[in-house]
Design goal:
Blueprint: H1 5-22, H2 31-40, H3 46-59, H4 71-76, H5 78-88
């Protein structure tokens, strides 16, 4: 396990989100290993984790949002979190259909 500032940043961010939502403290010392593996073995980019945690902080507790309550569950449910973020962002912009040709039929 590497002692990495990025790991600590992620742990502090997640703990902040969870303690604010649940109004209690979380024990984080066991989170280091899971966060380290997520970054090092799963190759999840640090910036993506931060971006998705920022989104999670705004949507925690909502329907269809994964329940994340530890470093281990963040690693296990990270793909579900990414998918939830993607679902909220439309992939294509809505372009209204042009029905004006209907007016020209007569």
């Amino acid at each position: 396990i590497r002692e990495d500032n990025n790991i600590n940043i992620i742990i502090n961010k997640l703990e902040n989100i969870l303690s604010n939502y649940h109004n209690r403290k979380f024990e984080t010392k066991n989170w280091v290993d899971s966060i380290d593996k997520m970054l090092r073995i799963d190759n999840v980019p640090f910036d993506d984790v931060i971006k998705n945690l920022n989104w999670y902080s705004e949507h925690i507790g909502e329907k269809y949002i994964p329940v994340i309550e530890s470093g281990k569950s963040l690693r296990e449910k990270y793909t579900k979190l990414e998918n939830a973020v993607k679902r909220e962002k439309p992939t294509t912009e809505y372009i209204p259909k042009d029905w004006s040709w209907l007016d020209d039929r007569n």
